[in-house]
Amino acid sequence: MKAFRLYSAYFAxxxxxxxxxxxxxxxxxxxTAFIGAGxxxxxxxxxxxxxxxxxxxxxxxxxxxxxxxxxxxxxxFSTLAPNLxxxxxxxxxxxxxxRVLLRPLNSLCQVLFESFNLESLANIxxxxxxxxxxGGQLGITLSVIDVVWLLVSALSGAVILLSVFVFLCxxxxxxxxxxxxxxxxxxxxxxxxxxxxIFNNLIQFVLSWVVPFGFVAFYxxxxxxxxxxxxxxxxxxxxxxxACLMVASVGxxxxxxxxxxxxx
Amino acid sequence: xxxxxxxxxxxxFRVFSRREGVGGAFRDLFQREYRTLKAVDEIxxxxxxxxxxxxxxxxGAGKSxxxxxxxxxxxxxxxxxxxxxYHPFRDRKAYTKHIGVVxxxxxxxxxxxxxxxxxxLLSRIYEIPKDExxxxxxxxxxxxxxKELLHTPVRKLSLGQRLRCDLASxxxxxxxxxxxxxxxxxxxxxxxxxxxxxxxxxxxxxxxxIILTTHDLKEIEELCRRIxxxxxxxxxxxxxxxxxxxxxxxxKQVSVEFVAAAPLEELSSKFTTGVKFTQESERxxxxxxxxEKISTVELVKNVLTGYEIADLKITEPDIEEIVMKIYRxxxx
Lengths: 264, 332
Prior knowledge:
The complex is a heterodimer.
Chain A: H1 2-19, H2 25-46, E1 54-55, E2 58-59, H3 60-80, H4 82-85, H5 87-93, H6 97-101, H7 107-113, H8 122-138, H9 144-175, H10 182-188, H11 201-210, H12 218-225, H13 231-235, H14 237-257
Antiparallel strand pairs in A: 1-2
Chain B: E1 2-17, H1 21-30, E2 33-48, E3 52-56, H2 63-70, E4 78-83, H3 92-95, E5 99-103, H4 115-125, H5 130-144, H6 159-171, E6 177-181, H7 189-205, E7 209-213, H8 217-223, E8 226-231, E9 234-240, E10 252-258, H9 264-270, E11 275-279, E12 284-289, H10 296-304, E13 309-315, H11 319-329
Parallel strand pairs in B: 3-7, 3-8, 5-6, 6-7
Antiparallel strand pairs in B: 1-2, 1-4, 8-9, 10-12, 10-13, 11-12
């Protein structure tokens, strides 16, 4: 509770400095929503219902549903992620991590809560809209349990994404490269927005067990699509999130112990 | 009671040596060469409660690395350290509540928001009770003269103003030990002076133990009784600042002005070891001598007898010169 109040104060602090440059906020809010919606057009035109009715047995509404589902978790992730994106440059190379370590707080939480990408929250609404629309097409009705599952799985998805990128950031403690190896992984997030079976076996394996972006949207969404064959994966989502979190925090702790700061 | 205990503390870095040119950068991608750098090499010392210790050394000597270990930022590669009963790196979260740190090179405050907002967030981070926070903020505002600055964003402050705010932020939680890494770098003479008197006050009146690194030796001379000199990762001197003048090999100087032309050769022949004569002008001579080998009294007596003297001046070596000599030659 104490931690929650403290990090709300961090958030308030960020809000104040963000509003110091309020001019571009609305514009980037709209821009982000467009980027989120961009992938939808791709699906709508590809599976047009006439020449292409489905991809490997997945109908347009199902694909849309999964896509919308993925926007929920990625929106939460992107809101918290800006400092992970430029972690190596800002914290390691410019040495701001010194300041983080001088405060009596968890170092990872400080990094995550020092900057937010509020615009990304727009995608929660885009995602909800798509889920509701596609769900309507599929004749899905939502019970209370379904809504709880939606929340739990979206949060789990965000935790999985955060964990993967925190782990990748923790490698910067050892290598000190400006860009790091994270960028290709940001592109991989997009694989998790589509039904896994449309990819070849290797990619399916990687997205399930190595970089488990399949758990961000696809597996948990099958709860609503009545695809029994993925049941074990689907309800394993929170466990996968927990496992990822553990690996990430071990990697982070180890990285911090190797932090070498800057010259002066 | 000692506040800081350091024993055989070491820090090694693995440094990636980059090859030259574009071709070299390309080869670096596939095969990297590392070498091990011992930034701090088995140093040991202890600091008593209430001390104001000067921690000095040339660039790259290992000063900052040792400060960063003592403040919990870096994990040592070897040795033991204990500050206020904590292991700085292992107990970082509990430990940092009790120390204050200022790095002159960069600010600890939030860049875009007003100073007072940074302070208020810090008061929550350190869980300072409201009344206590108000009282401390009032006191710090008064002695550091911050009133005009509190509502300005940090990015708009001048360097001197920013350092004053940084110092206040490092003291807001009533730390028992204060680490200052070049806290007056880039300040003008007036700002430096007021910073010094402030440090003296918090050390004397509030009993805060202070570890100070700086390149400004005047500052050290004014503030510190004890200094530690570090070079190439080793401690080369640890002791009273006054005694550093008495170290073997530290020359004193006598300038003599004669009424007639200076009898340089005659004088030289009077002494055998430990004395060096240099002619300054026609009538004046500078004598460098080692007080370990010949006493001042004996030297002056020998110079005075037989000549008419217009003026005589004995000078202690400047602290700056001594430290330069130590950096250059080590301690004999």
